[in-house]
Amino acid sequence: MGQKINPLGFRLGTTQGHHSLWFAQPKNYLEGLQEDQKIRDCIKNSVQNNMKNSSALKGIGIARIEIQKRIDLIQVIIFMKVPKFLLESRPRGVEKLQTTLQKEFNCMNRKLNIAIKKITKPYGNPKILAEFIAEQLKDRVSFRKAMKKAIELTEQADTKGIKVQIAGRIDGKEIARVEWIRKGRVPLQTIRAKMDYCSYTVRTIYGVLGIKIWIFIDEE
Fold first, then answer.
1. What is the CATH number of domain 122-219?
2. Beta pairing partners, 215
3. Where is the Small ribosomal subunit protein uS3 C-terminal domain (predicted)?
4. What is the pLDDT of residues 149-180, one digit of tens each?
């Protein structure tokens, strides 16, 4: 069962918390859900545009975006690998992003506040690892070499286990296949095991490849 469903949703309420915290009436729930998705998409697009404008920003990734809503306040917390470019850019990236979001969502009655936090161990996050593998595959690096390098990077983050899987037309082969590599323990069916998971899509010259990463952090 643990292999068939999302490992994060499987552990909600035990070792995994929600990335959005707010209350709404049932008739307004859909609007709040769509608003959260639009906020996340707007932030990701803004970061990607900044990355295109500067070659030095290659490899910057957003691990996750947490949203907390109150009656008069929307608090957005961005967990990033390198938040320096948003804090030091001219004009300051955070203020520019905050202004863009307020105009986009017409937050007249609610104040929008954006906070940025740096991840202490970025390569212990599957989203950042998946982006690293995607960049390697775009540069035509061997998929096995990219997966092994990603596993080496996770050793810096003191993880207990990792599994990396790539699916699609790997290396331009005509028939799609699935390749995976694992190191350490990855207990998908143990609910008390704190897991992190990411599913990422990358477009290469051969077609679309799917990257999945499971990381075993700790057991409670």
1. 3.30.1140.32
2. 162, 196
3. 133-215
4. 999 999 888 889 999 999 999 988 899 999 99
